[in-house]
Amino acid sequence: MKVEAVEVRIVRMPLRFPFETSFGREDTKHAVLVRAQADGLVGWGEVPAMAAPLYNEETVETAWHVLRDFLVPALLGVELQHPRQVRERLRFVRRHHMAKAGLEAAVWDLYAQQQGRSLRELLGGVRDRVKVGVSLGIEATVDDLVRRVEGFLVEGYRRVKVKIRPGWDVGVVRELRRRFPDVPLQVDANSAYTLEDAAVFEAMDDLGLLLIEQPLGEDDLVDHAKLQARLRTPVCLDESIAHPHDARKAIELGSCRVVNIKAARLGGFSAAVETHDVCAERGVPVWCGGMLETGIGRLANLALASLPNFRLPGDLSASDRYFEEDLIEPPVVLEPDGTIRVPEQAGIGPRVRLDRVDRVTVRREWLRG
Ligand code: NPQ
Ligand code: MG
């Protein structure tokens, strides 16, 4: 297979509710969408970067630049036996993992369609439905957060993740635990603390949390190991794991007991599957993180989350968690048992609604060999 042409687009979609984390408040979802053509087929991929480099160093503008000027030209017209070869082909560009992941995803979708197989099958998925949870941002008051949690529990979500930051942590989580004694609950700090704040996490240690996600520096493994040694609750790393070898090192050092896997953060599905395997070989469970993806990235995440070592519920909510109208049809929905079905159709599954994509596009360009 040879990719003949690639269209890159920057899209902006209003979020149904603002989402606030330790790094800022977002009311619009930004992304770069990648549309690749080969043999009369079209494959889609998503770069779920933000407008500002707050989660990691990438933005939609850096992804646009690196895709347009380096990554796409390196792939156009190149004979590919399998999408696994994309990673090697793009390795000459240092980092820019989200940009790489979006392009690689479009090739996986193309290849899967060409083979008449689902992305889940190609990646080695073993489940036809995956356990999911909902991720909640910081709210104005604890009562507001409690009301939002109640709403999502009524909708059927079975696991709740809440964002924390200094000043919005132990007190909030204690209150949530009091109001929802049996709900599987976890927290995510997005790197807002240092080891000097260890007491905050020790105070949360008896609240029965599933895990504490990325409490310390986004590039740290050493201090996380020191923190994990002081806690019974598993530390889970997100930002700190940018390569499969980071997962190996983190496990060897004792920096975490659980790993969050996002193909976007790791540079694509090949790297995500390798990270999954590194963790599985060492008996460390993983779960699928999310970046408020549109349906395009959301479907790809579902396929990934069906691999065997994804043993904790993912940040994989239904389309209507974030968007009034998704870019795919049918949208992703929550099943009555609190799971989401993994599509069985060829490629990522449901159709991409080009008319809707056009309406949210703010810039687009075709690239040809
Ligand atoms: C995380 N995601 O696990 C993130 C980070 C995050 C679902 O909690 C716009 C685009 C806003 C991407 C907010 C969840 C975002 C974003 C947070 C990603 O760390
Ligand atoms: Mg996180």
Task: Walk me through the structure.
The protein has about 375 residues and is an alpha/beta fold. Strand 9 (about 235), helix 9 and strand 10 (about 260) form a beta-alpha-beta unit. It has helices at about 60-75, 85-90, 95-115, 120-125, 140-155, 170-180, 200-205, 220-230, 245-255, 265, 270-280, 295-305, 355-360, and strands spanning about 5-20, 25-40, 40-45, 130, 135, 160-165, 185-190, 210-215, 235, 260, 285-290, 330, 340, 350, 360-369. The protein has 2 domains: about 5-115 and about 355-369, Enolase-like, domain 1 (2-Layer Sandwich), CATH 3.30.390.10; about 120-340, Enolase-like C-terminal domain (TIM Barrel, Alpha-Beta Barrel), CATH 3.20.20.120. It is globular and about 55 Å long. The strands form 4 sheets. The protein has a 7-stranded parallel β-sheet with strand order 5-6-7-8-9-10-11. It has a 4-stranded antiparallel β-sheet with strand order 3-2-1-15, with helices on both faces. A two-stranded antiparallel sheet has the order 4-13. The structure holds N-acetyl naphthylalanine (NPQ) and magnesium ion.
